[in-house]
Amino acid sequence: MLNKVKATIEKYNMLKAGERILVGLSGGADSVSLSLCLKELGYDVCCVHLNHCFRGDESDRDEQFCKTFCNEQAFALVSFRKDVNAYCVANKLSPELGARKVRYSCFREALEKLGCEKIATAHTLSDCLETTLLNLTRGCSIKGLCGIPPVRDNIIRPLIDCTRQEIENYLDEKSQGYVTDSTNLVDDCSRNILRLNVIPQLLRINDGLYKSYLTSLANFRTADEAIENAALSGINSAQITDNSFDAKKILNLKQPYSGAAISHMLRTFSVEPSSERIASLLYICENGGKVTLSKTYYAECKNNVLSILKDKRTAVQKFEVPFSESLKLEAFGKTFEAMPLEISEIGHIIHRKFTKDVIDCDKIIGVCVVRNRRNGDKIRFAGRGVTSSVKTLFNTDVSQNMRDGIFFIADSEGVIFVEGYGIAERVKPDENSKRCVKINVVKNITGLSH
Fold first, then answer.
1. What are the pLDDT digits (tens) for 1-47?
2. Per the structure, how many domains does the chain have?
3. What is the pLDDT of residue 103?
4. Is the confidence at residue 325, as pLDDT, over 90?
5. b/e string for 396-433 if b means 16 or more Cβ within 10 A?
6. Which residue among 132, 142, 261, 432 is least crowded, i.e. fewest CB within 10 A of its CB?
7. Residues 136 and 83 in one domain
8. Are residues 121 and 38 in the same domain?
9. How many CB atoms lie within 10 A of CB 85?
10. In what order do the strands lie in the sheet with 155-156?
11. What is the 3-state secondary structure (H, E, C) of 79-147?
């Protein structure tokens, strides 16, 4: 199994030699084996554990196991204890969605604490097959048939080509214990029904099921990549402005390309591209009309122009997270990143006539956050000599539809960075600067404006 994990890491370019990596550790067989495999392969392993408090004493048992295991293996561990059920009730979320939100919030915090750039989760080929079958049962595109991606943003899955049986055999050989979540043993949810009842019957039909599935998976992923590339090219060609598109060009793509193109478009507005939304948009592209997309956006097609518009009745949703010198976050269909610079890099930067994206952190005053716009925002941009109202700037350059999705950095004295415009004069690096960060904002869907 170790060779298979090594091959998977190399195949998908998941890690550099000896890289420090954060493992999501539940205490189960999958995450325990992942931690040990990565250690054997020479990586600097750290772990994060979340006690969801769903299962009472059993959850506490899992937490204690992870602490003991990490102590024995000399793994750095960040452990969280969260009442996820209370969070779900307060935020009107399903347990699955609420747990996911809390889990990834904890992962981001642990990444920063432990100085890691990537997190490894213990999803296996067995999990991937279950996901494909679930998607197929509910109805899906080729992307749904692809199951769980090996890499997504900074999340890697080194066990994605390993079956659950291979993992258990690996742990048996090492005489390594693990904990079992009792809820996984009861067929009271869709995934468990597949795991406990359906897949064993499929294995009776074909004991080489997983080998066959891997071959099919490669074909699915190749087809999906071709469709995605064609769809992205098509939607870029159809784009008129940052929120309007030529409806005829979208329809000329035909299915499945037109549906995939609309999926790309919706994601840039942080709208989940369900089959119903895609079908509705294709309908109004052909016939005209209006359709609600979310609490924030609606789509309208007039004179063969499809526009994604913000509902003016919707209150601006405030976004705000603490700023740090090493920060990566996703919002508004984009990735925001603050990256520390070496002293040698700073020296090169200060000799530029105008620096748009580098901040001297020693000049930040008080509490600093990354956020979206607020009423009354003003900034004196570096090199311009005047204080500008953000509202005036946006009235000239940014459509009403996009203004709430622009990244700002602000400290206790006001705005010090506006995405697309630059930094404030008072945080500009100079010859005395020692601690600087470069700000980078990238659209998650390459080539589409947002």
1. 999 999 999 999 999 999 999 999 999 999 999 999 999 999 999 99
2. 3
3. 87
4. no
5. eebeebbbbbbbbbbbeebbbbbbebbbbbbbbbeeeb
6. 432
7. yes
8. yes
9. 14
10. 76-81, 44-51, 20-24, 119-120, 155-156, 151-152
11. EEECCHHHHHHHHCCCHHHHHHHHHHHHHHHHHHHHCCCCEECCCCHHHHHHHHHHHHHHCCCHHHHCC
- Pair 277, 293: CB distance under 8 Å: yes
- Measured CA to CA, the distance from residue 58 to residue 52 in angstroms comes to 11
What is the average pLDDT value for the chain, to the nearest integer? 88
pLDDT at 316: 55
Instruction: In whole angstroms, give the CA distance from residue 205 to residue 354.
Output: 67
Q: Are 216 and 129 contacting, i.e. CB atoms less than 8 angstroms apart?
A: no
Same domain, 79 and 169: yes
CB 115 within 8 A of CB 152: no
How far is it, in rounded angstroms, from Cα 240 to Cα 242? 7
70 with 169, same domain?
yes
Residues with Cβ within 8 Å of 267's Cβ and at least 6 positions away in sequence, in order, are 273, 333, 444, 445
CA torsion sign, 179 to 151 to 211 to 256? Answer: positive
The Cα-based distances of 31 to 84, 116, 171, 314, 413 in angstroms read 21, 17, 11, 42, 45
**31 contact partners, CB below 8 Å, separation of at least 6:** 23, 24, 25, 121, 122
Q: With a cut of 80, say whether residue 260 has pLDDT above it.
A: yes
* H or E segment to which residue 10 belongs: helix 2-11
Q: What values do phi and psi take at 52, rounded to 5?
A: -75, -10
**For the chain, what's the residue count?**
450
11 CB neighbour count, 10 Å cutoff: 11
Cβ pair 32, 172 in contact under 8 A: no
pLDDT band at residue 352 using 50, 70 and 90 as cut-offs? low
* Tokens 């901040």 sit on residue: 359
100 phi/psi in degrees, rounded to 5: -65, -45
Residue 294's domain is classified under what CATH number?
A: 1.20.59.20
